[in-house]
Amino acid sequence: MRSREYLVSLGLAKPGRGRLSLEAKEALRKAVANGMTFDDITTSQPKPETKIQSDIVIKSRPQVSMQRATPPNSKASIVRNENVMYGISKAEKPGESNVVIALTACDKCSKSINRCPCVSGPVLPKFLGGTPGMLTRPNV
Ligand SMILES: [Zn+2]
């Protein structure tokens, strides 16, 4: 049976072509809802629920390494404020005067005066006695 035939049978539509009244459409809708089938109406079956993929993988961000590049802690190796030591080159001949010589490196460890770790302090070179140098300029 065609839907129009059904409606005609109900007196809600006229045979042949023509727009269906709202009343006719409503009657048709109810008929379909009640399980009636018509040759020209395809009742849409309730679609099986589309399974929504829920396994959305939230990619974890690559672990950010928080390791900081350790800057060379230059301050730590500074063991004293002075960076110059003084030695006295003694006069060898009469008439000569002692000469104060400033040195910026320890003769023992070869490090600069302010970084020299030598226990007794930066050491003067042999020609100045090979002893720990003075960290303050001597008055000669
Ligand atoms: Zn030293």
Walkthrough of the structure:
This protein is low in regular secondary structure and 140 residues long. Among the domains are: 3-33, no CATH class; 78-140, no CATH class. The protein is 14% helix and 7% strand. It has helices at residues 3-10, 22-33, and strands at 85-89, 99-103. The longest helix has 12 residues, at 22-33. It starts with a helix and ends in a 37-residue tail after the last strand. The model has no long low-confidence stretch (mean pLDDT 84). The site of zinc ion has 8 residues, from loops.
Strands ordered across the widest β-sheet: 1-2
Portion in strands: 5-15%
The rough form would be described as rod-shaped
**Could you state the order of secondary-structure elements as H and E?**
HHEE
Instruction: Round the mean pLDDT to the nearest integer and report it.
Output: 84
Rg from alpha-carbon coordinates: 53 Å
Number of helices: 2
- What is the terminal separation in angstroms? 131 Å
Question: What can be said about this structure in brief?
Answer:
14% of the residues lie in helices and 7% in strands. It has 140 residues and is largely without helices or strands.
Blueprint (SSEs and pairs):
Blueprint: H1 3-10, H2 22-33, E1 85-89, E2 99-103
Antiparallel strand pairs: 1-2
The chain binds zinc ion (ZN).
Features:
140 residues, binds zinc ion, 2 strands, 7% strand, two-stranded antiparallel sheet, little secondary structure
